[in-house]
Design brief:
It comes from Microbulbifer aggregans. GO terms for molecular function: ATP binding; double-stranded RNA binding; L-threonylcarbamoyladenylate synthase; tRNA binding. The protein is an alpha/beta fold and 187 residues long. A nine-stranded mixed sheet has the order 7-1-2-6-3-5-4-8-9. Strand 8 and strand 9 form a beta hairpin. Helix 1 crosses helix 6.
């Protein structure tokens, strides 16, 4: 997968400045922002017309970025994560109040994914930690699978759009509940 390291730097700077960007993921394009910047998250939610209550996914290329959220897990739970990461599996993990409510929504868990998409992993590294990443589409519309679709949905409302192409998977990441084992969204 080819992408520009310059794109990584521009995207990371936009995130650090409170921007909302679009980037490719394993299967679709995503919208991303700094999870600890409430204004950025609210802007992202407004662009998507997504309610705060639903919660958002945190994505990184390195499990270390989630270490404070994984402290209270059992060895068996940590092994489940290790068996599926990096890759297109998102886990709902209890957050014990360690993430802002504008990320977790109305939930006692937070959605975490350790991605194997090269650009998204490089972006999180350059940013210095996990980022919010949610599908690049307004609520009720199909997720964007190409850059032109992102631009059609959002025009110039984003601070950066780039990073190569998606990983080519046809289905979105699977979402599993770590505590119950239930598959919330098949992948």
């Amino acid at each position: 997968m080819v992408f520009s390291t310059l794109d990584v730097r521009f995207a990371a700077r936009a995130l650090a400045a409170g921007g909302v960007i679009a980037h490719p993921t394993e299967s679709v394009w995503g919208l991303a922002c700094d999870p600890f910047n409430r204004d950025a998250v609210e802007r992202l939610l407004q662009l998507k017309n997504r309610p705060l209550a639903k919660g958002l996914i945190l994505v990184s290329g390195d499990e270390v970025d989630f270490s404070d959220l994984l402290d209270n897990l059992t060895l068996e739970q940590r092994q489940k994560l290790a068996d599926s990461w990096p890759g297109p599996v998102t886990w709902l993990v209890p957050h014990f109040g360690r993430v802002p409510p504008w990320v977790s929504g109305d939930h006692h868990s937070v959605a975490l994914r350790c991605t194997d998409h090269p650009f998204t992993a490089a972006l999180a590294r350059a940013f210095g930690g996990a980022i919010v990443s949610t599908s690049a589409n307004p609520a009720g519309c199909q997720p964007a699978r190409a850059k032109y679709q992102v631009l059609r949905y959002f025009g110039d409302a984003l601070d950066f759009v780039g990073g190569g192409t998606t990983g080519g998977r046809r289905s979105p990441s699977e979402i599993r509940d770590l505590v119950t084992g239930k598959i919330m969204r098949p992948g």
